[in-house]
Specification:
It is a single chain. It contains ten helices and 15 strands. It is α+β, with helices and mostly antiparallel strands and 380 residues long. It folds into two domains: 52-169 and 224-374, (Glycosyl)asparaginase (Glutamine Phosphoribosylpyrophosphate, subunit 1, domain 1, 4-Layer Sandwich), CATH 3.60.20; 172-211, no CATH class. It has an eight-stranded mixed beta sheet. A five-stranded mixed beta sheet has the order 9-10-11-12-15. Strand 7 and strand 8 (239-245) form a beta hairpin. The longest helix is centred in the C-terminal third of the chain and has 15 residues, at 303-317. The structure holds aspartic acid.
Length: 380
Amino acid sequence: MSHFPRRTFLAASGGLAALPLLADHAPGSDGPVADDRPAPRALPPEGRFPIKAVSSANGMAATKRAVELMRKGVDPLQAVVQGVAIVEADPDDTSVGYGGLPNELGIVELDAAVMHGPLHRAGAVGALRGIRHPAQVALRVLQTTDHVLLVGEGARQFARVQGFKEENLLTEKARKIWLHWKQNLSDQDDWLAPPADAEVGRFFQQHTRSFQVAGRTVRKFVRPTGTIHCSGMNAQGDICCTTTTSGLAFKIPGRVGDSPIIGAGLYVDNEVGSCGSTGRGEANLQNLASFLAVELMRGGMTPKDAGIATCRRIAQHTKRKDLLDDQGRPIFDLKFYLLDKQGRHAGVSLWGPAKFAVSDERGTRLEECEFLYERMKNEK
Ligand code: ASP
């Protein structure tokens, strides 16, 4: 067997230096796929592909950057990875990269994945410690290895030899929030109640919700989720995406969520469209929801309808009583960000109202998500 194709993807050094490797790929050169799928939708009605990026609501800077780069001809995967790098480096976003909330031991563990539509190739890392830009490490997995997913210590070793800098990702803000959670966990351990702290107090207030369970209104701290997903389409209609996260706050060490799992946290089929998600990863993992949404679009659904149908499927598959309210609705949230080959997009959530970010020829903005259930006024 020839080793040539593999060598062509070997990267030389760390950081973003190796990203131009993907630019060598001529869009569409993989040719048509020989199977029974419907013919690719060639062009949107306007007769051209709009350069566009969609992301979770925390990603306005990311979609803006991704579109700017795609306008300059940068490969869409490089564009979205560079876009989300802004959020990964933001200490104030406690759901992604540097400043993300840690696991139950106080250690930040990151998950990320990338997927390249034209090549139909993916790379991912799970439970990665000490590296600020996991999406870039995931891209290196795609570019330089025959694997798709590296986890834990192996992922860290890989990042190190690729030249990524190791650092402590736990910011003072995230450390204080984690310690407050830990000190309040139980009245049967040796921790005393933590001292009052206005910023920490606000954080816990923001993440406390009311639910109707067993005929009563229950106030419950909902462990923060977050994440950024970003999908981008260039002028050739090629679609790529990435999802990057610190995952569920205070998780059991080693827990990997949906974000780095291809088909769950993200999926793209270059002939159809892409989907990515944020929210309760366990619900997504049990439904491979991004793959489902793309397949529904392949069947002819719009991004909005595919997202709603996907939310409905997740609700139908949620059986655990402690995850359902009195009306049988999941008490958690999941959101999907969808982009189809015709350049249509949607953000869809189980619970609304909610927003998502879009950049295209109309500029960068937040739009309203479609949703399955509307939150009551007194439910935060
Ligand atoms: N989906 C992510 C996870 O479960 C978390 C999130 O989106 O907030 O790890």
